[in-house]
Design a protein that fits this description.
Elements lengths: L16 H4 L3 E2 L1 E6 L5 E6 L2 E6 L2 E8 L3 H9 L1 E5 L6 H6 L10 H4 L4 E2 L8 E2 L4 E12 L8 E13 L4 E2 L2 E2 L1 H4 L2 E3 L5 E3 L12 E2 L6 E2 L11
Antiparallel strand pairs: 1-13, 2-3, 2-6, 4-5, 5-10, 6-9, 7-8, 9-10, 11-12, 13-14, 15-16
């Protein structure tokens, strides 16, 4: 099949776009309003843009409390959600009234951040403390518009139990990923693989695959 996104007629029950861009990491974003009211919500239009400096980005539907809070206060905390907090993450996605504290709704404790005001989710395996660098309104259609917030990471928290031999043990963190429709995935040791970058010949014209275990050197 092939369809034009400007006038979609894909003949499917639902738009397949989000089922094709997979897996997507989940940015579990904690914010405070200008009056100090907490808000927590997960977003899957989320990813890292660079590591030097560390930059994250999330696209959030216009009108959402999370977006309003970030634009007003210029900061947020982005937590990593894992399988042990799956139900709490899901509950925090509920489209409840602005007056509701999603930490309470999802029965989650908080821990103070170090460099920004919004707290992180207690017991989350990792979190990024962020300041707003830039916001970019995206093209809108008749149904919904989004704004991308580009976030400078000013602090990183990692639970020490997920650090082994000087590296983050991603498999033991078991982070959640978003798929299409109502589907999610869990990253663990059963579905992780390691691929070395190809070795390039001295003349730069050919390359070979290296199937040996990674030696810990980036090439």
């Amino acid at each position: 099949m092939h369809y034009n996104t400007s006038n979609p007629d894909h003949g499917m029950q639902f738009d397949p776009f989000k089922a094709l861009v997979v897996p997507r990491p989940i940015g579990w974003i904690s914010t405070l309003s200008e009056t100090g009211k907490p808000n927590l919500a997960p977003f899957s239009f989320f990813n890292a843009l660079s590591d030097r400096p560390p930059i994250l980005a999330a696209s959030i539907a216009n009108g959402k409390d999370t977006l309003n809070n970030i634009l007003e206060t210029k900061e947020c905390t982005v937590c990593v959600s894992n399988v042990t907090q799956m139900d709490s993450m899901n509950m925090s996605s509920a489209s409840v009234d602005t007056s509701v504290n999603e930490f309470n709704l999802a029965e989650l404790d908080t821990v103070a951040s170090t460099y920004v005001t919004p707290p992180r989710v207690a017991l989350c395996p990792a979190a990024f403390e962020c300041q707003l660098w830039k916001s970019v309104p995206l093209p809108a259609n008749e149904d919904q518009g989004y704004t991308t917030v580009i976030l400078s990471v000013v602090g990183v928290y990692i639970d020490d139990k997920f650090i082994k031999d000087g590296r983050v043990d991603t498999a033991s963190m078991q982070p959640l990923a978003r798929l299409g429709y109502m589907d999610y995935a869990v990253i663990n040791e059963n579905n992780m693989i390691t691929l070395n970058r190809p070795s390039v010949a001295d003349d730069g014209k050919t390359a070979t695959l290296d199937t040996t275990p990674w030696d810990g050197v980036y090439r």
